[in-house]
Amino acid sequence: MTEKKNSMLLKVALAIFAIAYTTYGIILLFFTNSYIESTGSEIINPNWIRWAGGVLLALAYGTLRVFRNPVHQDTYVIVAALATLFTGLALAYELIFEMEAGYIVWMTVLPCAGALVISALLWIGRQQAKDILKQG
Predict the structure, then answer these.
(1) Using an 8 Å Cβ cutoff, are 14 and 121 in contact?
(2) Could you please report the per-residue DSSP string of the chain?
């Protein structure tokens, strides 16, 4: 019972990670032009961004595979936590130093906050899951 309770936060964090990456993966893969226009940024070739949608969908699929037994998948959880941390920090850097007139701020704030929160949940859930392995 304790093992299931302590790994629950990690499972919730992985579920949120999978949902967020699936959503952004579908948006970037199939609705690239609409997404670029909605951010208020310069119009660019969408093929430079579209490939990221496929990568995000692959990460979401991998997360669903790890979801069954995340306690023993420490490396994947570390990589996912670092990926979301660096994504959040890059978006925070853009908010602070790179914002230009015409950008829609909430289109950067929402993913930035979400990535940082998911990263924190993954780190905390990982730590709780590691405590299970030490006890057992």
Answers:
(1) no
(2) -HHHHHTHHHHHHHHHHHHHHHHHHHHHHH-HHHHHHHHT-----THHHHHHHHHHHHHHHHHHHHTTSGGG-HHHHHHHHHHHHHHHHHHHHIIIII--TT--THHHHHHHHHHHHHHHHHHHHHHHHHHHHHH-
> What is the distance between the alpha carbons of residues 132 and 136, in angstroms, rounded to a whole number?
6
| Cα–Cα nearest to 39, from 10, 49, 47, 5 | 49
pTM: 0.83
Answer for the pair 60, 66: CB distance below 8 angstroms, yes or no. Answer: no
Per-residue pLDDT tens digits for 36-91: 877 766 677 778 888 889 999 999 999 999 988 887 888 999 999 999 999 999 99
d(CA 108, CA 98): 11
Q: Are 85 and 115 in contact (CB under 8 A)?
A: yes
